[in-house]
């Protein structure tokens, strides 16, 4: 019997026994759905982390000089307290590094805190106010949608101008153009000179609820004590140059803080690598746990299919005897039942892929997780689904093929 | 039986001898005892004969039928079918012989319940490796031969007992086998339908088909031109009937 005939026969059996086939493909279906779904989440978050997160929070080839790291998951209290005791980063530190670096870089100061911003009788609460220098926009990759960023001149003079995040502009001005109007921050009017492009959200956190003002504007008193910075950003032209600049900055800071060689840094030079390392850790856990879940459901799926096939062989003993008496060879019978189990598993996998893609779309729509289907997982799903079908079919099909036609025909 | 060859081991049958069984024995090892179902059966059946095999239960007629049908191989002896020695063929070769040379008709019809008449008749052609279109034509023609040209799309449960057995006969004929091998073909049919099916057999025989039929009913056996009776694993009688 040619392969095509076996397949046709298998599809026919599947069609005529919908309920039974439905149950038997459930295991593979669940396995493949979970495979595609979890791969999509991992894949989506991965892409987000490497492409968007690293770039928006840190910037490409950028490091930050800070008292403690930006991203601090699972830090013990003792470490946290040690960080809190460290000296803060000062304007003078930033100036010294800017002067001391021999690598071409651009730099920015940054200090932030949450405030309320008002316009007329409208108020936007819990807005991240950032006092920064003018290259901050460039380093953080914040593109201006309307208007302009503030200038170096405005920054040096501490002119009260503001660049609004998209959400703040919408909240305060609704549909009116905000440029040229004065918003109030800490009781002081700031002229709006620009609005930043819509940034969306990151793992559920909105990225558009911010206002950026010059580092030396009056608002500096709202975010930090005088002369203190949260972070000093340094962006180099390449990864190599960034590391060179980091080494130089480390040397400058150590000498400014009079650290002896055996003393550890009491500051950090943080890059997106830290976050990515953390993510890589999560990813590794995900990638060890997830295949387990998938394998378990596929094994269960395979066992279910094997049982159904053994049942089918028992039920259809007479049919097998008849087919043999009509000239079916062992391999014809083997192929028939293998085709059936493989078809069941493949159909299950196909439905699983559809459901997995649907699940991905659903996750994207209703949860903050940025899921995206990984093509590799679809390929793996097809191969695994089909493989399960073949493996689960081998034993029942072999039993069927070995049946003695006389005994099989005599069976009631 | 004038032209029956005196066959000796090592000989080759004459061309018009379709079935030649020479000293066939079949023993079953049932663990504690050895069951000798056939104890040396020698039979020759020629082209276009209509033979009934009779005998009480335990006489070995089912065993003989399985051997003739190439579903089983003898413990010793020779079996030649249509000029080919099949008694020592391997499993897959036997399957090919069953497919090409033998048309089975069973007591219980053995139709696939979920397939229509046409597909049931097509089955042997699938294993013969024929293309879908060729199968369809041949199967349709075979159904017309047994008078079911208008029932091709019917499933077995939509057919009467007689019609089911006709589908089974069409299936047996579709590969143009050397012999039609029927095992109690009327065992599940009422007497009217039995007569009808015997009519079909008679017509096929008249058209040149060799027919071997196993039965325990005298009046069914009476349709055949020759009756072989088995007893205790040996041929007891072998006589031609007056037509």
What secondary-structure arrangement, pairings included, does this model have?
The complex is a heterodimer of chains A (412) and B (243).
Chain A: H1 3-16, H2 18-58, E1 62-66, H3 77-85, E2 89-90, H4 91-100, E3 105-119, E4 122-132, H5 136-139, E5 144-147, H6 152-157, E6 161-164, H7 166-173, E7 182-185, E8 188-196, E9 201-202, E10 205-206, E11 210-214, H8 220-223, E12 228-229, E13 231-236, H9 239-256, E14 268-271, H10 272-315, H11 317-325, H12 330-366, H13 375-402, H14 405-410
Helix pairs in contact in A: 1-12, 2-10, 2-12, 2-13, 4-9, 10-12, 10-13, 12-13
Chain B: E1 17-29, E2 34-46, E3 50-54, H1 61-68, E4 76-81, E5 84-85, H2 91-101, E6 102-105, H3 117-127, H4 132-145, H5 161-173, E7 179-183, H6 191-206, E8 210-214, H7 218-221, E9 226-231, E10 234-240
Parallel strand pairs in B: 3-8, 3-9, 6-7, 7-8
Antiparallel strand pairs in B: 1-2, 1-4, 4-5, 9-10
Descriptive account of the structure:
The complex is a heterodimer of chains A (412) and B (243). Chain A has 412 residues and is an alpha+beta fold. Chain A folds into two domains: 3-52 and 283-410, no CATH class; 107-236, no CATH class. Chain A contains 14 helices and 14 strands. Chain A has helices at 3-16, 18-58, 77-85, 91-100, 136-139, 152-157, 166-173, 220-223, 239-256, 272-315, 317-325, 330-366, 375-402, 405-410, and strands at residues 62-66, 89-90, 105-119, 122-132, 144-147, 161-164, 182-185, 188-196, 201-202, 205-206, 210-214, 228-229, 231-236, 268-271. In chain A, the strands form three sheets. In chain A, strands 3-4-11-6-8-7 form a six-stranded mixed β-barrel. A two-stranded antiparallel ribbon of chain A has the order 2-12. In chain A, helix 1 packs across helix 12 (330-366) and helix 10 (272-315) packs antiparallel against helix 12. The longest helix of chain A is centred in the C-terminal third of the chain and has 44 residues, at 272-315. The radius of gyration of chain A is 32 Å and the shape is elongated. The relative contact order of chain A is 0.19. Chain B has helices spanning 61-68, 91-101, 117-127, 132-145, 161-173, 191-206, 218-221, and strands at 17-29, 34-46, 50-54, 76-81, 84-85, 102-105, 179-183, 210-214, 226-231, 234-240. A six-stranded mixed beta sheet of chain B has the order 6-7-8-3-9-10, with helices on both faces. Chain B has a four-stranded antiparallel beta sheet with strand order 2-1-4-5, with helices on one face. Chain B is globular. Helices cover 32% and strands 27% of the residues of chain B. In chain B, helix 3 crosses helix 4 (132-145), helix 3 (117-127) packs parallel to helix 5 and helix 4 (132-145) crosses helix 5. Chain B contains seven helices and ten strands. Chain B is an alpha/beta fold. The mean pLDDT of chain B is 91. Chain B has one domain (48-73, 90-240): Rossmann fold. The interface between A and B is medium-sized, with 21 and 24 residues.
């Amino acid at each position: 019997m040619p392969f095509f005939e076996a397949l046709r026969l298998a599809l026919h059996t599947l069609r005529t026994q919908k309920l039974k086939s439905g149950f038997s493909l459930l295991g593979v279906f669940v396995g493949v759905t979970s495979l595609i779904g979890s791969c999509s989440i991992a894949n989506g978050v991965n892409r987000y982390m490497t492409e968007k997160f690293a770039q928006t929070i840190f910037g490409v080839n950028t490091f930050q000089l800070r008292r403690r790291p930006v991203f601090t998951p699972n830090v013990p209290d003792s470490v946290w307290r040690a960080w809190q005791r460290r000296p803060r980063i000062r304007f003078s530190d930033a100036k010294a590094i800017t002067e001391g670096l021999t690598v071409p870089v651009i730099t920015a100061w940054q200090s932030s805190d949450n405030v309320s911003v008002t316009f007329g009788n409208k108020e936007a609460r819990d807005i991240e106010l950032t006092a920064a220098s003018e290259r901050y926009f460039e380093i953080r990759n914040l593109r201006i949608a309307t208007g302009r960023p503030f200038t170096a001149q405005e920054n040096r003079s501490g002119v009260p101008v503001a660049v609004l995040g998209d959400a703040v502009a919408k909240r305060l001005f609704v549909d009116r153009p905000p440029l040229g109007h004065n918003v109030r921050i800490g009781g002081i009017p700031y002229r709006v000179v620009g609005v930043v492009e819509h940034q969306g959200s990151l793992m559920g956190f909105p990225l558009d609820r911010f206002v950026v003002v010059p580092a030396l504007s009056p608002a500096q008193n709202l975010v930090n004590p005088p002369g203190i910075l949260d972070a000093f950003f340094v962006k180099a032209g390449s990864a190599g140059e960034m590391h060179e600049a980091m080494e130089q900055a480390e040397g400058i800071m150590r000498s400014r803080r009079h650290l002896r060689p055996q003393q550890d840094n009491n500051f950090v030079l943080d890059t997106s690598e830290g976050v990515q390392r953390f993510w890589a850790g999560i990813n590794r856990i995900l990638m060890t746990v997830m295949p387990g879940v998938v394998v378990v459901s596929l094994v269960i799926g395979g066992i279910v299919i094997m049982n159904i096939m053994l049942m089918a062989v028992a039920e259809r003993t007479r049919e097998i005897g008849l087919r043999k008496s009509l000239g079916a060879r062992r391999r014809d019978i083997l192929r028939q039942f293998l085709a059936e189990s493989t078809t069941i598993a493949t159909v299950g996998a196909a439905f699983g892929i559809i459901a997995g893609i649907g699940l991905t779309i659903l996750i994207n729509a209703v949860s903050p997780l940025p899921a995206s289907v990984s093509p590799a997982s679809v390929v793996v799903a097809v191969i695994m689904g089909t493989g399960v079908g073949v493996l689960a079919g081998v034993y029942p099909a072999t039993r069927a093929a070995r049946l003695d036609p006389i005994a099989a025909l005599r069976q009631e | 039986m004038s032209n029956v060859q005196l066959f000796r081991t090592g000989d080759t049958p004459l061309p018009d001898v379709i079935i030649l069984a020479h000293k066939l024995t079949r023993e079953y090892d049932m663990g504690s005892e050895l069951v000798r179902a056939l104890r040396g059966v020698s039979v020759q059946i020629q082209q276009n004969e209509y033979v009934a095999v009779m005998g009480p239960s335990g006489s070995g007629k089912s065993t003989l039928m399985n051997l003739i049908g190439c579903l089983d191989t003898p413990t010793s002896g020779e079996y030649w079918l249509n000029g080919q020695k099949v008694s020592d063929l391997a499993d897959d070769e036997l399957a090919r012989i069953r497919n090409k040379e033998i048309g089975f008709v069973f007591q219980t019809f053995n139709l696939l319940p979920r397939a229509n008449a046409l597909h049931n008749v097509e089955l042997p052609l699938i294993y013969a490796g024929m293309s879908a279109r060729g199968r369809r034509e041949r199967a349709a023609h075979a159904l017309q031969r047994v008078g079911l040209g208008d029932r091709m799309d019917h499933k077995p449960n939509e057919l009467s007992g007689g019609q089911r057995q006709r589908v089974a006969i069409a299936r047996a004929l579709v590969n143009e086998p050397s012999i039609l091998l029927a095992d109690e073909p009327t065992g599940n049919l009422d007497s009217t339908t039995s007569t009808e099916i015997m009519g079909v057999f008679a017509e096929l025989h008249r058209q040149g088909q060799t027919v071997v039929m196993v039965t325990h009913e005298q009046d069914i056996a009476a349709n055949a031109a020759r009756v072989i009776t088995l007893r205790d694993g040996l041929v007891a009688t072998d006589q031609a009937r007056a037509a």
